Amino acid sequence: MGRAIVINDSTTIDADELRFTASRSGGPGGQHVNRTNSRVTLHWCVDASLSLSPEQKDRVRHKLSGRIGADGELQISVDTERSLHRNRQLAVERLVALVTAALRPVARRIPTRVSATADRRRLARKRRTGLLKKSRAVPPPD
């Protein structure tokens, strides 16, 4: 059991559930970039995760459906830094941000009503517009 990655007060992801792969990066680094594997891809199988409840998995799958493959795996690639270690840290930070946003409950919309004054203003504006259009009309022949 590895260290836990804290998502919020009640949710953590076990670091053993994450898999990292390194590959060649096209980012900054000059000729050095052609010889080192500094791009990090974080792989996390949402479906197989023991850290999330079934409801949380459903919410993550729904909110991040565009980022999760058919195999249920979320992949995050980072190649912004020259350091493999720093790119790995950034990948974990992005995972935390994505999962935190996905697990955040949607605020219920409270239906509101238009105030009586605003409704009167709207109707008065409609009357004025109607009168203006009527005044542009060609008078009927006598």
Description of the molecule:
Helix content is 36%, strand content 18%. A hairpin with a 5-residue loop joins strand 1 and strand 2. The mean pLDDT is 88. With 142 residues, it is of the alpha+beta class. It has helices at residues 54-63, 84-103, 116-136, and strands at 4-6, 12-14, 18-23, 39-45, 73-78. It has one domain (4-103): Double Stranded RNA Binding Domain.
List the main descriptive attributes of the protein structure presented here.
single chain; 142 residues; alpha+beta; Double Stranded RNA Binding Domain; three-stranded antiparallel sheet; two-stranded antiparallel ribbon; 3 helices; 5 strands; 36% helix; elongated
Quick overview:
With 142 residues, the protein is α+β, with helices and mostly antiparallel strands. The protein contains three helices and five strands. The chain has one domain: Double Stranded RNA Binding Domain (2-Layer Sandwich).
Major β-sheet, in short?
A: 3 strands, antiparallel
CATH architecture: 2-Layer Sandwich
The CA-CA distance between the termini, in Å, is 95 Å
State the oligomer.
single chain
* Strands, total number: 5
